[in-house]
Amino acid sequence: MGLWSKGNTRRMEIVSIEPLSVFSVYTAVFIVLSIPALLILDALGKIRLSKYVSFIPDEGFFAAFDNPFTIALLAGIAAGLVLGMLALIFALIYNCFASVMGGVKIDIRD
User: Of 68, 85, 94, 96, which alpha carbon lies 20 to 30 A from 23's?
Assistant: First the structure.
């Protein structure tokens, strides 16, 4: 019994990827992972989140930007949206190549 033994063979093909699904998954995952990561790095002293928004005034509506959680939340959302857009662009590029070349084909043998 080798790696390619005789038996049932199944063929799987990835002919397209839904771009909006990729966007939503990558955005959500990166937002969920980046907020705690930024807060932990700030608490350990590896980065100082408050220095990235030091140009914003400390009064009125902008007073909340002095809080590390608010900064991590906004940075996580922004980074998640950027990563989601990149994933969406790569999914569109894959779909273009897959429509011309036929996508990825995988044979699985039992």
Answer: 68
